[in-house]
Every structure is written in structure tokens, then in C-alpha cells.
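Let us practice reading a record.
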Amino acid sequence: MPTATIARARMGAISAAVSQGGSPRLALSAVLGGLAVASIGLQGFYSSTRWEPLALGLLLVLVAVAISGTIVLSRAGAMAVAGLGLLAAWSALSATWAESVGRAWTATNRLALYAVLLMLALAVLRTVATARVALAVLGAGVVAVGLYVVGRMLEGSGPEMFVAFRLHDPLGYINAQAALFLMALWIVLAYAESARAHWQRGAALAGGVLLGDLTVLTQSRAALPVFVISAAVVMLVLPGRVRRGWMLVFVALGVAAALPPLLDVYGERTPTGAEFPSLDVVRRAGAATVISALGAGIAWAAASSARVRAATHLDSRLMGRASIAVTALVVLTLIVRLGSPVDEVTSRWDAFTSLNPGEESQARFTSADGYRYDLWRIALNQFEDRPLRGVGSGNYVSTYHRERRTNEDVQQPHSLELQTLGELGIVGALCLAMFLGGTYAGAVRWRQAVRGGVSPLDVPVAALGVFTVWLVHTSVDWLHMIPGVTAAALVAAAVLTARRHDGAPPPARQRLLVPVVTLLAAVAIASSLGRHYGATVYRDRAEAKLATDAPAALADARRSLALNEHDIASYVLVAATQAREGRYADARATLVAATAQEPYNHLPWALLGDLATRRGDPRQARRDYDRARILNPRLQPTGSGPAG
């Protein structure tokens, strides 16, 4: 047989395996589902030195899949990935008007990663089997992390996992950890709802209660509304409401049973200056988590068995009325407990607009205190000033320090929608709406398939719950800037919107258009990612060498600037090495060049003031500090210069 014929046959076999759910596709599904889990020990891949190499690797896999000609998109999937792709393109274009090109570049690369990940997931997760593998790896992985946390709480090293008496480790960001727990909760609840064996349902629900208990330990203010809204969306969109409603009641009762010892951890804060909660309190919380999870799991397994036996005697309408009665009882209890709903809403609004972080409150989990009102106000101001195009991707900080009313030093407005409006204007908001609209259109398609009896219920319940948790949570936070957490949402979006494999070849237009567009985009993305990543690596090397080998640090910092001339941190490193060598004029010139890269940034001016102070030039220092305070009226003295 000719070599060319053999090669074509092998390529055909590979394409068939990929398109029909063979082992390569299942392996890729597991990898995609495991990205969020793997990120937990790496701070969610937040650092660009972690997510940029990941993006390059995923891009390489995507190109291989595109060349095989197996990418087939549904309308919902095409809409979702086009929305993300256009958002990345508009973000790149915004560098032409943004004050900080460097920040726009970083934000664009992150959006490109998301578009690549979604496209690859759409190509891979086209069967129920692959979707289940991805979701199962994600859910089981986070449950395993939860068991690890509880184990440490019981073993004795649990207090070290708390910061400000809130569960902080192992991910390293409290709210993101809460979001991952809630995402995984929906995956295990989907299994608890649909598993055949009663013991499997009970075990899954026990895992859900465990994750719910750990979410309480994070004291994330968004957790409760996020879970309630995600539950409402899943109940509204997908059938099977009666059983799901009862299941949610069991979860709520299980978490409620453990609440007193769980809340004691945060409530243990005292003015004595203790850094961590006490070992006894943490152990009691861990024990309560285990007991409540096991109790709720056993109860759900028994209830599921009883429901099956009673199904021939009880009409489903009666079960529905019973679940409505239980829900009404819960709502009535809340009204009695909270008092007048109008007064409660008014009180929460006053707390929200008071710009009080509320760290002394004993009820942080349900409080509305904080500083988000100020963050959102500034984002809306940016949108009002530039409604069409915004201030530029990643450039929220360009006006934040001048307009803020608190001393909080943040980089984003803690809201996906408001950040998009402020930074990318109406055009960016429309691209985001396209992505979100495509995802939820896919969820509606699943509902029709489930009602028609051609699709299972567990997959859409899990995927819709995961994505909605992410969306609602990042609407009041910045999870969209944490690639590891967002990866879970994108996998769920792909499950909801991927075209189900039906054995038919891709349409002729897609066979040509998708590979060509993918390859062209891949070239641009790889060039951008590679250059930016190289600059970051050189900058990190320079920072590591600064204290011991200034000449080598200077060489690496200059290499970084050669690849990315917009990086303020590299300018600061160059100035620091020059100052260490006593080259005052050169260090000052470097920092002045940095001010041109980010005119809004107070840091170079503050460092210029520090440099002049060390030089013994108080007049120049005062002029530099005054300029820094104009850009940041709440600026606190740094006390150190580039040589520090």
C-alpha cells in the first residue's frame, strides 16, 4: 500500500476517534475538566506566567484538532465563541486609545485564552460521554479538595488555612474558592438527582452538603445569593423540578444543621490580635461538616428509596404541592425572622452605599457592607464618559485612584458587566451579551432535548448550575480574571452549546471556514502570547537577581523591555539597578519614560520623589510627590525609592 494512502488512513482513524468520542477525546475531556482543579494549588493560574504557557499549549492542541477537520459548531456554540473572539479582538483594538497599552495587552491575551479554551471544548465535548467525563473530573476533584480541607481541620493544621478567620487555602483567594465549591456542588447535586442506586444519590448529596459547609466557612457575601439565583435558574429552565426541589431542601437542612459551629469560626474574632481561629473551634467546625454531610446523605438515600416505593401511590402533582408548601414555609420563616422586607432592603441598601467593609460585623456572610458601591460608581462614570468604546481593556485603574472615596487599592470594579461597560463600552457589552446569549440558548436547547427523551438530565443540570454560579458570582466580583476558575465556566458553556455528535460530516462551509479562521487567529494569538510571556519571564528573572547581581538584573530587565516596551514594572527594575549603581540621571530618565507609558499612574512619580529625596533634592522631590498626589489624592508615602 502506498505511503500516502497509509498516512491518509491513519489521519482518518485519528479524526474518527476524535469526532466519535474515542480515547483521545475522552482524555482531552478529562484534561479540560481538570484545569480548574489543577489551578487550585496554583492560585487559580492568576499569574500570567502560569496561564500564558497554558494558553500556548491549548492553542497547539486546538490547531491540531482544526487541521483534522472535526470541529463542528452548533448555532449556539458559534454564537458563544464568536462573542468571546470578538470581545478579544475589540480588546486588542482598544490598545490604540487606552492610556496603558501594557494593561490592554495583558487583558487581550487573557480573553484570547478564554476563546481558545471554549473553542477547544466545543470541539471535544460533543457527546454525553465526554461531557460527563469533564464534569465528573471537575466535580470529583473539587470534592477531593474539600475532603482534604476537612481532613486538615480535624487533624490539627486547619487554622493555618484561614485568613481573617475566613477559609483562604488552598486556592489562595477566598471568594474564588467559594465559587468553585458552589460550582462543584451543582455537579454532585446533578448526580444525586439522577443516579440509579440510592446509595450513590446519598453519597453525592453528602458531597454537596460538605461543599456547602465549606462555602459557609469562606464567609463570602456573594455565596448565598449566588446559590439562590443559580437554583432558581436551573429550576426554571430544566424539568425534574419536584425531585430537585426536595433535594435542595435536604441540602439546605444539612448545611443549616452545621451552621452554629461553622459560624463560630468567624465569630471567634477578638480584639486580642489573634491571627488564626483556635484549633478547638476549627475542629468542631470540621466535625460538624462531616456529621451534617453524612446525615443529609443517609436521609436523602432513604428518602429517594421511599419516593420510589411511593411513586405508584402518590400523584406527582401531590408531590409538587408538598414541595411548594415546604418552600412557602421556608419563605414565611425568613420573613418572620427578618421582619419587614421593605425595611430589610432599605437597611441593606444603606449598608451597601456606606462604604464600610464591615469586617467587625458578626454576620458577614449575610451582610451588604463593603466598598463595591464605590467601585461600580467609577465604572459607570467611565461608561458615561466613553459610552461607545470605553477607557480601554484593563484600564479601569486609569481613573480609579483619582475618583475613589476609600483607601482600597484595586485593579478592577468587581463586576464582569460593569468592567466591560467601563473599559470596552457598548461594543464590548454587545460581544459579552453574544457569548452569554449563546450559552443560555444552548441551555434552552438541552431543555427541549430532555423533554423529548433524547438527552439525559444530569448533564445540563450540572453544566447550567456551574455556568450560572460563575456568571452571578463574577457579576459582583472578579472571577473572570482568574483563568482557573473561569475555565470551569467555559467547560460548562461548551457542554451547553456544543453540537451533539450525530455522525454527519461538518457542513461544507464549516469544513473550510472554521479551520481557516482558527489557523489565522492562532498565528496572531501565538505571536502575542509568546512575546508577552517572554517579556514577563525576563522581568521575573531581573527581579530575582536585583538584590545579588544588579548588572545581570539590568540586562534581563532591558530584554523584557525589548519585548514589551509598555511594562511599567520593567522600567522600575531598570531604574532600580541604575540607582544601585549611583546613576541618578539615568534612573530618573528611565522613570520619566515610564510616566509616558501610563500617564495616569502615580507610581513612577512617587518613585521619582523617592529618588530625588535620596539624592538630597527636596524641591524636586516635592514637585514629584505633588504630581503623584494629583493622580492619586489618597496616596500614602512609600518610604522607599527604586533602590529600595
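A brief commentary: The chain has 24 helices and two strands.
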